[in-house]
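Exercise 3.2. Students should predict the tertiary structure of the chain below and write it as structure tokens, then compare their answer with the key that follows.

Predict this chain's 3D structure.
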Amino acid sequence: MTVRTLVPVGAVHWDHPAWRGSFYPDGLPDDWMLSYYNTQFQAVWLPAAVWQDASEATWAQWLNDTQDGFQFILEAGEGKVGMPASPRVVLATPAWAAAHVWWLDEAPDLRALAQRILHQARSGEPLFVFSRSGDVSLLEQVNTLKQVMAY
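Answer key:
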């Protein structure tokens, strides 16, 4: 059973060099990074260049390394399409992204985000909040906002 979160929070990819030794514990092996990331966040945005090059075995590992409610949001791209058939994997067409994605770096106003969350809650559709830069402080603020709003 896939758990559905109304406001999944995450970043573009889980491999941010600046996170080594700050977000990720010292000595964490590379192949454990996604599992650790999933303890803090509920989704990841994957650029087309990353997910389209992933093999079936890689996708199986990514899905296995994350909890049931974790979601992979895939940037729409051109060329080879190799996304797995899983309810946890969503192709973000431009129209879908406009309705379901809040880019935190471009709109860090938490009051405006709270209003958007309330609007989204009325529709029952999820609102994915992502940081392109991987600003952990902003992401933590959003997780706190979600707790305060009971989402």
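Discussion points: The chain has a mean pLDDT of 92. The chain has one domain: 9-149.
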